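so i finally got all the pieces together for this one. its four components total, 486 residues if u count the protein bits. some of the lines might not be protein, just check the labels. i wanna see the whole assembly predicted at once instead of chain by chain like last time, that was a mess tbh
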Amino acid sequence: MDHHTLERLVCKLRTRCRIDAVAEAALLALPFTVRTMPRGQYIVREGDIARRACVLLDGFAYRQKILDDGGRQIVALQVPGDAVDLQNTLLKVADHNVQALTAVVAAEIPRAAILDIAGKHPSVAHAFWLDTLVDGAIAFEWIANIGRRDARRRLAHLLCECAIRLQVSGGRDGETFTLPLTQEQLSDILGLTGVHINRTLRQLAAEGLIARDRQAIRILDDRALRNAGGFTPAYLHLDLLDD
Amino acid sequence: MDHHTLERLVCKLRTRCRIDAVAEAALLALPFTVRTMPRGQYIVREGDIARRACVLLDGFAYRQKILDDGGRQIVALQVPGDAVDLQNTLLKVADHNVQALTAVVAAEIPRAAILDIAGKHPSVAHAFWLDTLVDGAIAFEWIANIGRRDARRRLAHLLCECAIRLQVSGGRDGETFTLPLTQEQLSDILGLTGVHINRTLRQLAAEGLIARDRQAIRILDDRALRNAGGFTPAYLHLDLLDD
DNA sequence: CGTAACCTTGAGTAATGTCAAGACTGGTGG
DNA sequence: CCACCAGTCTTGACATTACTCAAGGTTACG
């Protein structure tokens, strides 16, 4: 995949709806500038006024909120192809931060160009809307995960989700993958503490559900892991093309 | 407000973006049937295939997930004017339930009509997209609330949010309002138990932040309550019209 | 007036957080 | 090539929040 075109965006949108040739051409013709960013860099800051939308061409990012007491919660993970601030493009002022999880290659598209293409191409507007809906569906699942599952089930659920999303976006086999997340970051996703994540990861490993080596995770027993996490992939809406 | 027209939908969309006369006419001309439903009735069931979208004309509803162990998590609240399953309209198969919180008057619009109007009127598509984005922004805030705040702050935050949303949707004064939620339901929103909600409500009352009488809540010290909940209304994006 | 749903309260328990120290790892400069 | 350093992981002991169970009180409504 060429990291210097918007092909990745088209590709992502295509996982969930049809993009005809005209719309594809229009998308690929969007004006953009490529930026590379190191791990940890802020892509969007809370309070920013949107002038541009950023599409991840390579690397991962996360959305994050800092609370008044300094606590941090990661509210979403973004994979290549994701438009990380369509939200902010329409909503004008960003209500959360977006930060690079790994080194990132991103395309910056002017806000006006996004609004323009969405206005002129209903199928593109449809695709963006759909993308937003799926992000919302994932957020709902996370609410349920954090609100109603204990640490072990929460973590199992997240691992299942990551396995699938990494597989879809990166073409990995899905059984073994590298989660570029520290245990601290995992805890900020799941509403737990780093210490507790550590213990829970080891517990899952001790049970034979996963194997770990640094940040590489291997799912040893997919069925059992899904079971442990109460995981059903319906909310990812990966089957929308089967119309 | 007449409960038998789609005026309420236009009204809701207008809180966040301009709807010109042509688009308004098209919206009001959408075909629909009115249904009334008693408290507790399912409006959408997980697994349903969307044939119609439902707009709340009067009454409240909530989105809810049932977990494999029987646990329940409420993932969103919907107020009059909300389209409760635009999500499912586009996503085809519902990944969660929507249930009437109070008695409800709703307008059912065929799926095809929604897709059609969004395709023909970019400003309507834009408004729907925006609506979805705001729902997503609220979901993100809930993730942060559940993941990183203790019971007292969680509840204070929710009360602040409800006060504002009820005020915007219903024209109440905002200081005193009736939350049509049982303590059990509050606990399912906040990822706690009913017993703990009970204790936390009384604690907030004992501190002089709120007064309670059945389900009526009066905010006695708005500043202190917002402070307790770390509440900032930015994520509700109520100021989008000030362009 | 009786009933079901809801609220309230107490006592004991389990899950998770806090604090603190030591071990490992990968990268950097000498 | 080695020594060091920062970041991360690991582990233990202890504290705390929130859960569970269970009983009794209250309210709304037929």
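The first strand of chain A starts at residue 33 and ends at 37.
Chain A touches chain B through 53 residues (CB under 8 Å).
anyway lmk what u think
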